[in-house]
Every structure is written in structure tokens, then in C-alpha cells.
Amino acid sequence: MSAAPRGRTIVFGVDSADLLLIERWAGEGLLPFFDSMLRHGPLVRLTAVSRVLQGAVWTSLLTGRSPGEHGTFYFTQLTNGTYNLDQVETDHYALDPYYSQLEAHGVHCAIVDVPGDMPIEGFKGVHVVDWLTEFQYWRFATQPAAVKQQIEAELGVLSPSGGFGPTLDGLEGHRQLRARLEQTVTMKAALARQLLARADLSHVFLVFAEAHKAGHFLWKYMDAAHPEHVAAEPYLRDALLEIYQLLDRTLAELAAELHPEDNLLIFSDHGMQANYRGDHLVGAILDRLQLQAPRQATDAHEKADSVPARALPKHGARARLRALVRRTTPNFFLRALRHRFGEASRMDWSRTKVFLLPTDRNTYLRVNLRGREPAGIVAPGKEYDELLAFLAREFRALVNVETGKPAVEAVYHVHELFPGPRAADLPDITVVWAADAPLNSVESARLGRIDVRVREDRSGNHRSEGFLLARGPAFRPGPMTLHGDVMQFPATMLALHGVERPAYYAMPPLTEALTASQRARSTADASRQSRDVCHSD
Predict the structure, then answer these.
(1) CA 20 to 30 Å from 313, out of 210, 279, 381, 536?
(2) Prediction pTM value
(3) Alpha-carbon span 163 to 365, nearest angstrom
(4) ∠ CA(340), CA(344), CA(349), 5° rounding?
(5) Among 55, 85, 83, 438, which Cα is nearest to 281's?
(6) What is the CA angle 298-304-305, rounded to 5?
């Protein structure tokens, strides 16, 4: 086999690995590879998109565009022109990913298990979608197709359609989860070694999803202050730490196979923390503000069909049921089922001004806007603006009764932050809940006290801050902390390969992290490309 090319860009994603945990455990000597990366190159703290619209992170990273350009904020969104919810349609992904730009300039790529990624017709590199991802937007597929057969034969799968498979609740289910995550780290690392040994690949982006899954389900065993804490045996008590340690060792082994001329980046989209949020309170809040009205059932049969949202199965079971129904039911029948039995069927839209959109961390609110929604009643302009301001004031006024502290960190007007042709697909308001304590009771002068207790099946949930660690000849040596935006990632990948970023990219590269010579080289290469385009015209 020919030697692998030098001067490559190698990116290992550690999906939802938390920077605060990494810094703590690295400081205690428990994560030597992460500690080395922190000490020998730039650390870029990444926020922005993930703080407001956590589900928009990966699409923004892949395309270089803001949520207002791609319209994606969660895996389940409104179907345009209806009140029905469905898995995100593929037209949300009709923007070229950054690696298509690299390929067009002769940079051969391997892209493996980037969350939210979709198959690209005619892609000439190695493309693996939803093999071992925490949540699937598509299904297990590869380009070339033979790669899938090779993976199945040599490395294995947990499910024929991809993903980690179901997670069972309880001690035994979580023991099985830990064992499964250790297995998948090994499987993913084996594929990474094969790709690093190839002579035709100059850019590799491979994502490990184990920290994501472990953070959601194993957090409560580590966190003695969590209300769902279980004093389990060390196998579960230390499970989250030991998954991080396994990733640390694995990344160290893979990094040892790189050339000195290669650039290595470790990327996390956002972090993890205790799952304290207030989405379960929103229905009662909107009721007291007289902003929503349930549809009145007209007969006993209809009343039996109208199940309160909090009586539905838990998140994991609900997601698995949705996936099964989608796979086995024709689209026309699915639409009819949503219209008859979906959340939209339970609302009286003639009296509802604001409604809740699906989420797994922040709360997303959408105005029933005239001209945008099928039965919109809020007028655009002054009435709409005053309603947004009212919502922001009322949510900011909420206090966590058990702590006496504000229950809400921030409220964002999404369209102001992310304007664009797909902005109408996004929520109008994002509420960021304070996650320092459980939110069982809130109060304010206008609303009084609201008590709603809920048990989450996932004890950990996302913290908005992601990070990028880097080392190699293109990056400034020595420890330094910078601040950036995830939308700078694709422009940075292009700059490392001397490819000019498209004018439509929302943000420039992370130039502060690059050496002066790399910045000069990127500028010179981009200028040369521009001259070549002009001459060819």
C-alpha cells in the first residue's frame, strides 16, 4: 500500500463531549491526551448557534450558513403550510457541504458519521452516514456502496439501519449501554485506522458519538447532587469518566499514526450537564397568559383520543415508536394520522396566539402568525412585535421557587439573530432555561406559582458550549484560549487546504488560531484561485 499523503487535515469529532469535564479530568491527570492538546495548541470555545438553536449546529457546520439560510433547528419540525410535525425534510439540506468544495478542488475526503449529514450523489471520496450516530436523520448508507458491505463484514453494525439501537431504562439497561459504547469506540477506531492508512485521502472528518449517548443516560450515576442519582457500583458510577478515558486513549493512538506535517483537530459541537430545563412548564405558562387554547372535544370518542402530552411515553420510547411508524406507514397515511391525532388536532387555532415546538433543551415558541400559519390570528408588524416583547418579559420574570434565582438565563428573538430565506421555518422565540438546579416550581408577579414535576429519562442534557482543539504546522503552538463560532469551522477547513471560501459563507476562518505563515498561504492560494477563475472566464 502506498504511504498516506502528508500535510493532511484530520478532524476527530467527539460529539457532545463536555469541555468543563475534560478540563477537570485532564487537570487531575485522568485524560493525558486531552491534557496534551490543551497545553500544546489553541483551544477555541464555540458557542453562538448552539446556545440559541442547538439542533442547528451540525447543519451550520457542514454548510457554512446560518439557520436563517438552511431553516433547520431540530430533527422534528413543522411541515410548511400545516401545523403537523415531521422529521426534517431533505430540502433543508439542499446546500452544499464544505467537503464538496474541497472535493471540487482536488482534495479527497473521508466523511464519517457527521450528525445530520446526508448522502451526496456522485461524491468521489469515502462517505459514511448514520453508521454509529447518536440519533439518525437518515439511515446507514455509504459512498461507495461497497464500503457499507466492508464495514458490515469486518467491523459490524448494531442495527441494520444504523445507530446505537434502543437504550433500556434501569441499571441493567445502562450497564448494557456502557458495554455497547465501549464496543462502538473500538469499531469506529478500526475504521479510522483504515482511512488514515489510505494514500488518496487528504481530509478526514470522523465523529465518535459515545460521549453524547453516555452523557444523556449515565450522568446521574456520576452526579451525587442529581435528583435521580443512583448510588450504583463503580461500573456505572464511573461509567461517564471511563468512556471519556477510552476516547482519550483511542484518540492518542490515532494521533500517534499521523505525520508531523498533518494538522489534527478535536471538535465537539456542544457539551453536557445535568438535565434541568423548564419545557414541561410552558403549557401551564401559556395557559395562564391566555396565549393558547385547547380544542374542545365534541364527543366521548374524541375525548378518549385526546391524550395529554405529559401522559405520552418517555422521550426514548416515543422516538422509537415514531421511527417504527415512519418506516412502516405510507406518507399519505402518515399525514392523515397527524391531522387527526397529532398535537395540532388538540389546539383551537382560532384562539391560540403562541404554541410550543419540539425541543430537547431550550424552549422553542412560535407565533400563530397571520399569512404564515394556516389559521394564523396574530397580525404581522406591531402586534407580532409586541407579542414577542411580552413573551420575553414574562419568561425573564420567572423565578425558580426552590432556589430563589432566575429560572431563565436568556430569551432570544430568533429571526433577528438569524435572518435569511428560511428564517420562517425557525421558532420566533428561544427560551434558555437556567440549568443550575431542577425546575419543578416557578413563579412571577403576573403568573403566581406554577408547580409541575417531571421525570426525564435522560439525566444529562446539552450545555451550549462546544470546543475545538488543534495542533500541527498550521496552528499557533502553545496554550491559548480563543472564542469562535461553529460557522467558522467550514471556512477554516477550506483555508487549511488553500481553498477560497464561497461568498455565501456566514463567517470567516478561525484565523487567530492559525500561524502567520498559514494565514499568508491561505490568502495567497485564495487569490490565485480568483485569478484562475477570471482567466478561465
Answers:
(1) 210
(2) 0.89
(3) 30
(4) 120
(5) 438
(6) 90
| Pairing status of strand 9-14 against strand 460-461 | unpaired
Please state, in angstroms and rounded to a whole number, the distance separating the CA atoms of residues 316 and 167: 8
Helix (H), strand (E) at residue 470:
strand 466-471
For residue 77, the cross-strand partners are 86
Q: How far is residue 188's CA from residue 207's CA, in Å, rounded to a whole number?
A: 8
DSSP 8-state class, residue 486: G
For helices 170-196 and 210-222, what crossing angle results, to 10°? 150
Residue 482: other Cβ atoms inside 10 A: 14
Say which amino acid occupies 366: R
For the segment 471-511, what is each residue's pLDDT rounded down to a tens digit?
A: 999 999 999 999 999 999 999 999 999 999 999 999 999 99
Do 57 and 207 form a contact (C-beta atoms < 8 A)? no
Q: Contact, 267 vs 22, CB < 8 A? A: no
C-alpha cell at 380: 404581522
Q: Which among 14, 52, 15 has a CA at the least distance from the CA of 33?
A: 14
Rounded to whole angstroms, the Cα distance separating 205 from 192 reads 9
CB neighbours of residue 443 within 10 Å = 16
Strand partners, 45: 467, 483
Output the nine-digit C-alpha cell for 289.
397568559
Exposure string for 160-174, b = 16+ CB within 10 A, e = fewer: eebbbeebeeeeeeb
How far apart are alpha carbons 530 and 498 in whole angstroms? Answer: 12
Asked whether 263 and 473 are in contact (CB, 8 A), the reply is: yes
Instruction: Answer yes or no: are the C-beta atoms of 214 and 178 closer than 8 Å.
Output: yes
C-beta separation of 100 from 94 below 8 A: no
Count Cβ neighbours within 10 Å for each residue of 10-24 and write b for 16 or more, e otherwise.
Answer: bbbbbbbbbbebbbe
- Give the pLDDT confidence of 119-138 residue by residue, as tens digits: 888 899 999 999 999 988 88
